[in-house]
Specification:
The complex is a heterodimer of chains A (about 1000) and B (about 525).
Chain A (H helix, E strand, L loop, with lengths): L1 H8 L4 H23 L8 E9 L9 E4 L5 E3 L5 E6 L5 E5 L6 E4 L8 E3 L4 H4 L1 E4 L2 E4 L7 E5 H4 L18 E4 L10 E4 L12 E4 L2 E2 L13 E7 L2 H4 L10 E6 L5 E16 L8 H14 L6 H4 L3 H9 L5 H5 L3 E13 L3 E13 L6 E16 L2 E15 L1 H4 L10 H5 L26 H6 L1 E21 L2 E20 L16 E24 L3 E24 L20 E22 L3 E12 L8 E12 L12 E15 L11 E8 L2 E8 L10 E14 L4 E13 L2 E5 L8 E5 L2 E17 L2 E18 L28 E2 L2 E4 L5 H7 L11 E3 L14 E2 L7 E11 L2 E11 L2 E3 L39 H4 L1 E3 L2 E12 L2 H4 L6 E15 L17 E11 L1
Parallel strand pairs in A: 1-7, 13-16
Antiparallel strand pairs in A: 1-4, 2-3, 2-5, 5-6, 8-9, 10-15, 11-12, 13-14, 15-16, 17-18, 17-48, 18-19, 19-20, 20-21, 21-22, 22-23, 23-24, 24-25, 25-26, 26-27, 27-28, 28-29, 29-32, 30-31, 32-33, 33-36, 34-35, 36-37, 37-42, 38-41, 39-40, 42-43, 43-46, 44-45, 46-47, 47-48
Chain B lengths: L1 H19 L3 H4 L10 H4 L3 H16 L18 E3 L7 H8 L8 H23 L10 H29 L21 H18 L14 H14 L3 H13 L8 H4 L10 E5 L10 H4 L24 E3 L1 H5 L6 H5 L1 E2 L42 E2 L21 E5 H15 L3 H14 L9 H12 L5 H7 L3 H8 L1 H4 L13 H7 L9
Helix pairs in contact in B: 4-6, 4-7, 6-7, 7-8, 8-9, 9-10, 10-15, 15-16, 15-17
The chains are: A mainly beta (about 1000), B mainly alpha (about 525).
Chain lengths: ~1000, ~525
């Protein structure tokens, strides 16, 4: 374990590593010596004592040395020691890896008991920064780190998702349960109204240019560092404004090769099944909806479809969830080999991940291979390369097989009539589940279509590092990444077959290949210098370029000669129905960046960074910008005045300011380009051009200025430690798709308008409650970020107040995603018809059973002026709570996530027209005077649909449970196994929420159902 | 040791080289590869001849949107909601005034689409004398005049439709490329003044209709016809009549056989003045399905193109419409389908008991499971229907037939109305009315207000020409309430004009039309 921690924290720093390995070896030797109770005699005084940790557990193997001599001893298994010293003025130094070193003067005492305090990994580690790394003690920015151990406890294929609920201020939502689908994630909330708010992801120094992170194997990850404040992130210039996630992959360690094998098997199921109407409730809705429209409403009147009628009479009922969903399976196996010597090191990993989704005909398989190697031919040169190959193969037939081509949408699960059918009397699949040709049979669509997606990804990351002078190094970091995504979709000639159509149509094939390619070249010069022990300087200069190109070629055709070859027969499509689509795109960045750090006596640390950044996505005059930052950190616990305050073991204050940009918009927004428009005359088609948009030549990046201040602390013998950060970000020149009057010929234009403000606070607290044989550690994180719009267009009304942008739903002083709609306060009841009609003069026949809307402006009628602020999807606060219990080899980790104060519109609620099935809601009828939902009407959805569907989507989720058992070494060693762990892990297990009428409180209608996952597995190291 | 020093010098040199290698600005100066910039794209007459297509396209686009494709057919005394209209909230609100408000996305679709057309037309008008072409070459000048004339005509067409439906609009007399500028609603007089001058320009610039085979090309004849309609709005009765007479006299036009006028097999027949164009396999329009009742839901009645193809039943002629026809009116048989027959007897679609193939489906023998009752077999117009002449199959919802905008017979009605209301040359007016009726096998009726209204419904019913007539005569609400009581019940006085899209009001601050605030 110690070896692991050491190698994890000191992956690239040769000298320290060597020193530590020596230290470690020493420990082991000394440990062996303990049993022989070696003792050197002949000294004048003997001191004995007992060494414990802060939980009063005896510490065996603690190294005790008389300062300035080679005289030493170590504690035995019970933490006792005995040492002879030269005199009473001798000083004993107690040291033990993982604990703070303590010194005690012997004085007159013959018994010296001491408590060693665990050192904080948090403070001892090396932190990866943009274009370099730094000891945690010198770090001035707000940087959170998460280690591979915590990531591995979540059985998810996506390394980003594994971080969920574990880092304060990092919020993730899974809106789609499709196997292999990514998660949405934010660092410190939202600053941008229209642009991407997703942080920049940097893998081994290479900013990612897109592509699915699920294609990277989480087992390859050594650590993740999250640059949250401008002090740390502004070195990434125009790409830093949303925070930066730095991912470091594993490297080989000096020592004999280590072979690691992991195998796991998981099972997935719906995490929550929405409550749909059963047959009886559905028929009742039909009757009630007919009644709502004033139409005849007996069963005979409403159950007019012959199939529904027959199912009803025969008591047949289908739960489409049962029919279409299955228990998903996840199989994961990986094997890694790593090792190294002074000259060469390597890490190699091959991994297979195979998932069968919970929807039929959905699979996702990933095969990945990584080789990280480094060669040090001379002391002053390191040559290395990181290579990643991955391939994914997915069958997406199950989530693309719907009536409308290419609509991946699961709305149909919910809408299919419970009185439908799947098979005819001969047990053959039927194309439609009832008489309506739109109510297709999903099983039919599955059989008659095929949708495949496969990707290949190649990442090559070579580097050379020279040590030019002592402390001066020059590193060339290069990268080439190529990704190829093939998509193939086929629908047979019988795909659109319906009970009403009796002849096959044309089959349809579509294939496309997308090829993003990116290159990067960074030149990095670093210089470190220590002067007179107290002054420490470090400087980093970067000059680099990055380019990205994208090419996409698609072909679609209809009427190929056979249904038997799927889209592979596209060549034989009818000539008139073959179309080709070729698209491409590109952007490039060029940058000069520098960082200057100065540290005085380990107490005062300063960091200054600046980046001069050019981005091709802006107009010629707006391409270059400068992004500076300054940060200061004070290690208060290093000050002498805190020496005697025992409960404070470490304390650091940080403050930073900086400017960052966000350039993630479409390319060429600054010029008007053409789109082709065709128009025929008497059967011949002609093609011409028209403008694709209104140009904005002065388009430039969004600029965020952030102020951050924080405190890192370790208290009560470091049993309680954590950080607290407070920040405020102002983002100006927002890039908005500004809606504009259509008199311009366009309805929107991309422009820099407006300003947002985002304030937040983040806390993480860790508490080691027990640390004996039984260990219990709690880690809690909590964050809130509140954004609001400060300025929009800047136009003022008569009263001098800035005008809101109602059309876009943006309001000064409100959250960027504020829901602005009517306030639904119930249903008009019988006897209130006149009042209802008076309030809604524009709606004929408005009355009992219709939604009651709050008359916000009090003018007696409901108009658009009565729309108001109903809440927003930005949580009031969110956080995670992780409990880790361990007893000997057994470890249990339970992670909860809470997201509170979220308001969303739940589109799972239908319009109650009764054409298709719906969520089983309590709706109004003349007999049922509820205020939940209005009266159904077969002719139209109820009025004010969105307002009625606004719901609180707060939740607490049981995110992960991990129970792992590591077999005692004495058992495994016989089989030459150095470690064997077996585990059971669960992910996304349960939501505690009022938002129950959806697959989860985070998902949207139409997305792949959200799943939970139980996995069993083993991890063997040889 | 020396070697090593040398090596270090190499490294430093290489580093300096790398820094200097790519020029700064060049590296971030990229050009789009798969799109031309507008500056490069509109530099020649050919380019503008391509660009005018995008203006035509805006004229036809409403028919490609299944929710607004027949908006011009709505709001009259002769149309009612179809049996399936209720399934379409946006469409239903537009068609029946039920919940018809400024947030309706269908309204915004039309408004935004027509303003995009205006912008494209204005771009051509402003570019025409900037682009390079040989100004000495008469052929080039003629081409220039045609493109410019088309742009003027289409600008007038969009403005006229907008003003007829909304009453209050922003005048788009130039390219507006500054979204932040203030926009105001123009006076009706200003809008009509521009429409008139645009059409007069177009008449000057465009070739005669006889120069074209295609009825999709704008010509002098088309422009004259639209100008005559504009003058009706302006109550310039004599001008309207004079222009209509020019259209009637135009050699390019003439009466066509009744059964050919709306057939997909005769899309360039002489009776058509102008139609929006579609092409088989191209973007579909949705008019055909909207006016077909749910006949195929009856047992024993198969879905075939002859019987109506795929039915959506979003609207149907009102009962009042049928009262307007004499039983011997030839138009009744030629342009309508009034009953359905049994034509199949298979297990999935069995003949009801007591009937045989080719029997007419009647209210008495209709099978209740059809679910639509008698409305499944209600009579309808076939003016928008499409047979298999363009490759349409019975399950296709979209169709590719051109959509006729203006027809020769309308010129007769315009001229007759012009003479009637101006009180001049009533005899000629009577003569024109009689000619039109004679074609339908009908005898003379007196040229008066009421007969003119009825004849217009019989001749041009469902063709999108009735709303402007009822609107300009100020009788829209009373006629709808009389002829189409279902819709009339929802109609309030302010519904005679459409609401400005709420989004447009929010963005510009212009006043919303009364009743929609």
């Amino acid at each position: 374990m110690m070896k692991l921690i050491l190698t994890v924290f000191f992956p690239t720093w040769g000298k320290q590593l060597k020193r530590l390995i020596m230290l470690m070896k020493l420990c082991i030797i000394i440990g062996v010596m303990t049993f022989h109770n070696a003792f050197a005699g002949g000294q004048q005084a003997t001191v004995t004592g007992h060494v414990t940790d802060s939980y009063e557990n005896p510490l065996p193997g603690v190294n005790i040395v008389e300062k300035g001599t080679t005289n030493g001893a170590i504690t035995d298994l019970d933490g006792n020691y005995s040492i002879s010293v030269a005199s009473s003025s001798s000083v004993l130094v107690f040291s033990f890896i993982g604990y703070n070193t303590e010194e005690l003067q012997v004085g007159n005492q013959s018994v010296l008991n001491i408590i060693l305090i665990e050192s904080l990994e948090e403070l001892g580690e090396v932190v990866v920064l943009g274009y370099g790394s730094m000891d945690r003690i010198n770090v001035t920015g707000a940087i959170s780190s998460i280690q591979t151990e915590e990531l591995s406890k979540a059985p998810v294929p996506n390394l980003i998702e594994a971080m969920r609920a574990q880092v304060p201020g990092v919020r993730m939502t899974r809106t789609d349960g499709k196997p292999g689908e990514g998660v949405n994630f934010l660092v410190r909330g939202e600053n941008s109204l229209n642009n991407s708010n997703e942080p920049l992801i940097v893998i081994d120094g290479i900013p990612s240019t897109g592509g699915n992170l699920a294609e990277l194997n989480p087992n390859d990850i050594e650590s993740i560092n999250i640059l949250k404040d401008a002090g740390a992130a502004s070195i990434y210039g125009t790409k830093g404004a949303n925070g930066v996630i730095l991912i470091t992959t594993k490297t080989g360690k000096i020592g004999k090769p280590v072979l690691n094998v992991t195998i796991s098997q998981g099972f997935t199921d719906l995490v929550h099944k929405p409550d749909l109407m059963n047959a009886e409730q559905f028929v009742q809705l039909k009757m009630d909806a007919a009644e709502g429209a004033g139409q005849p409403n007996t069963i005979d009147d409403v159950l007019i479809d012959a199939v529904e009628r027959e199912s009803w009479e025969n008591g047949n009922e289908i739960d489409w969830h049962d029919v279409l969903l299955r228990t998903g399976k996840v199989t994961n196996a990986g094997i890694s080999l790593s090792g190294g010597s002074e000259k060469i090191s390597f890490y190699m990993n091959g991994d297979i991940y195979m998932e069968d989704g919970i929807v039929q005909h959905t699979t996702y398989d990933r095969f990945s291979f990584r080789l990280n190697s480094e060669y040090n031919p001379y002391k002053f040169i390191k040559i290395g390369a990181k290579i990643q190959l991955s391939k994914t193969v997915a069958d997406e037939t199950g989530n693309a097989a719907v009536w409308y081509q290419n609509r991946s949408d699961f709305t149909d699960f919910l809408g299919n009539t419970p009185l439908g059918r799947m098979y005819d009397e001969n047990n053959e699949l039927v194309p439609t589940i009832k008489g309506d040709q739109f109510d297709y049979n999903p099983l039919w669509k599955y059989r008659e279509s095929q949708t495949d997606r496969s990707t290949h990804r190649f990442l090559l990351n070579p580097y050379i590092e020279f040590t030019i002078l002592n402390g001066l190094t020059y590193r060339i970091n290069a990268s080439a990444e190529y990704r190829s995504e093939f998509y193939g979709r086929f629908t047979s000639s019988r795909y659109n077959w319906s009970t009403l159509a009796d002849e096959p149509g044309r089959n349809y094939s579509n294939i496309s290949n997308n090829e993003p390619m990116s290159y990067l070249l960074d030149n990095i010069v670093t210089y470190t210098k220590n002067v007179a022990d107290k002054h420490s300087f470090n400087a980093t200069l970067v000059y680099g370029i990055q380019t990205y190109t994208y090419d996409s070629l698609g072909v679609s055709g209809e009427g190929s000669i056979t249904d038997l070859m799927s889209y592979n027969a596209i060549n034989s499509s009818e000539q008139d129905y073959l179309t080709i689509d070729f698209q491409n795109d590109e952007w490039s960045n060029m940058y000069f960046a520098g960082r200057l750090g100065y540290s005085f006596d380990r107490r005062y640390n300063f960091t200054f960074t600046g980046r001069y950044d050019g981005s091709s996505v802006f107009g010629p005059d707006m391409r270059w910008g400068f992004f500076p930052s300054a940060a200061f950190a004070w290690n208060i616990s290093e000050e002498s005045f805190l020496e005697n305050i025992n409960f404070i073991n470490s304390l650091k204050y940080r403050i930073s300011w900086g400017r960052m940009g966000n350039d993630r918009i479409g390319t060429y927004g600054y010029i008007a380009l053409t789109q082709n428009v065709s128009y025929p005359f008497s059967g011949t088609e002609y093609t011409g051009y028209t403008a694709d948009k209104l140009a904005n030549a002065v388009l430039q990046w969004e600029t965020s200025q952030q102020f951050n201040t924080g405190l890192d602390f370790g208290l009560f013998k470091n049993r309680l430690y954590g950080s607290i950060d407070v920040y405020k970000t102002n983002t100006i020149d927002l890039i908005l798709d500004q809606q504009i009057p259509s008199v311009t010929g366009f309805t929107e234009v991309v422009s820099n308008i407006g300003e947002t403000e985002n304030q937040g606070i983040e806390v993480i607290l860790n508490y080691r409650i027990f640390n004996g044989d039984f260990k219990w550690e709690v880690s809690a994180n909590w964050a809130r970020d509140r954004n609001n719009i400060v300025h929009l267009s800047g136009e003022l009304d008569e009263d001098g107040n800035e005008i809101d942008d109602v059309a876009n739903g943006w309001f000064i002083g409100q959250d960027v995603n504020e829901i602005y709609d009517f306030d639904y306060i119930g249903v008009w009841q019988l006897g209130e018809e006149d009042a209802a009609a008076a309030m809604h003069p524009d709606k004929v026949g408005y009355g009992a059973g219709d939604p009651k809307i709050r008359d916000v402006d009090g003018d007696g009628v409901i108009t658009f002026e009565d729309r108001t602020f109903l809440g927003n999807p930005t949580p009031d606060w969110y956080g995670g709570l992780r409990n880790t219990f361990s007893y000997k080899g057994l470890e249990l980790t339970v992670l909860f996530e809470a997201v509170q104060g979220v308001t969303r519109i739940n589109y799972f609620y239908g319009g109650l027209q009764s054409r298709g099935n719906e969520i089983n809601v309590d709706y109004w009828t003349p007999q049922n005077h509820t205020n939940e939902f209005p009266q159904p009407n077969i002719l139209r959805p109820y009025y004010y649909q969105d307002a009625v569907r606004v719901r609180d989507a707060s939740f607490v989720a049981l995110r992960n449970v991990s129970l792992a058992y590591t077999l005692p070494q004495r058992l495994t060693q016989k089989a030459k196994i150095s470690s064997l762990q077996i585990y059971v892990r669960g992910n996304n297990l349960k939501y505690f929420t009022k938002y129950v009428d959806a697959y989860s409180p985070e998902t949207d209608l139409g997305r792949f159902p959200i799943t939970k996952n139980w996995t069993i597995g083993t991890n063997i190291t040889f | 040791m020396r070697k090593m020093k040398k090596f270090k010098i190499y490294v430093i040199q290489a580093f300096i080289l790398l820094i200097l290698l790519p020029g700064c600005d060049d590296f971030v100066d990229l050009e789009p590869r798969d799109q031309l910039s507008m500056d490069l794209a509109l530099t020649s007459l050919e380019n503008l001849e391509g660009a005018i297509l995008s203006v035509y396209e805006r004229g036809s686009f409403t028919y490609q949107d299944f929710e607004v494709c027949l908006f011009k057919t709505l709001y009259t005394d002769i149309i009612r909601a179809g049996a399936c209209l209720g399934e379409q909230p946006v469409w239903n609100a537009i068609a029946t005034f039920d919940g018809f408000d400024a947030m309706n996305t269908g309204i915004k679709t039309v408004w935004d689409g027509y303003y995009a057309g205006l912008n494209r037309a204005n771009t051509i008008i402003e570019k025409i004398d900037v682009v390079e072409y040989n100004r000495e070459n008469p052929e080039a000048v003629a081409r220039r005049n045609t493109v410019l004339g088309e742009a003027y005509f289409l600008r007038a067409y969009f403005h006229l439709t907008l003003i007829q439906y909304w009453d209050n609009i922003v005048l788009a007399d130039q390219v507006f490329d500054d979204p932040s500028q203030a926009y105001e609603l123009a006076s009706k007089a200003d809008v009509y003044a521009l429409i008139v001058s645009d059409l007069e320009e177009a008449i000057d610039l465009l070739p005669e209709a006889s120069n074209f085979i295609s009825r999709g090309k704008v010509s002098k004849g088309v422009a004259r016809h639209l100008l005559s309609l504009t003058h009706l709005d302006l109550e310039n009765w004599e001008k309207a009549a004079a222009l209509a007479e020019e259209v009637i006299a135009d050699v390019a036009y003439g009466f066509a056989p009744l059964d050919q006028i709306f057939s997909e097999l005769y899309e360039d027949n002489s009776e058509i003045i102008f139609s929006w164009q579609f092409i088989p396999g191209g973007t579909a329009q949705w008019t055909a399905v909207n006016l077909a009742p749910m006949y195929d839901r009856c047992n024993g009645v198969d879905r075939t193109l002859e019987q109506g193809g795929r039915p959506w039943s979003r609207m149907s002629p009102s009962e009042y419409y049928w009262t307007l026809f004499e039983e011997d009116d030839l138009r009744l048989e030629a342009w309508h389908k009034r009953y359905w027959v049994y034509d199949t007897d298979i297990e999935e679609d069995p003949l009801p008991e007591g009937v045989e193939i080719d029997d007419t489906v009647t209210a008495e023998n209709i099978d209740e499971t059809a679910g639509y009752g008698i409305r499944a077999i209600e009579p309808t117009t076939t003016k928008y229907w499409e047979g298999d002449g363009l490759g349409r199959v019975k399950d296709d919802a979209g169709s590719w037939k051109n959509v006729i905008q203006f027809r020769y017979s309308e010129a007769f009605l315009v001229a007759a109305e012009g003479y009637l209301r101006s009180g001049t040359n009533l005899a000629r007016g009577q003569e024109l009315l009689d000619q039109l009726r004679a074609r339908a096998g009908q005898g003379s009726i007196e040229l008066n207000n009421s007969n003119l209204l009825d004849e217009q419904a019989r001749e041009l019913g469902m063709e999108g020409r009735r709303f402007p007539m009822l609107k300009r005569l100020g009788i829209l609400q009373e006629r709808i309430q009389m002829g189409s009581p279902d819709i009339g019940a929802n109609m309030l006085p302010h519904h005679v004009r459409w609401p400005l899209p709420q989004n447009f009001v929010d963005l510009t601050g212009v006043p919303q039309n009364e009743g929609y605030e």
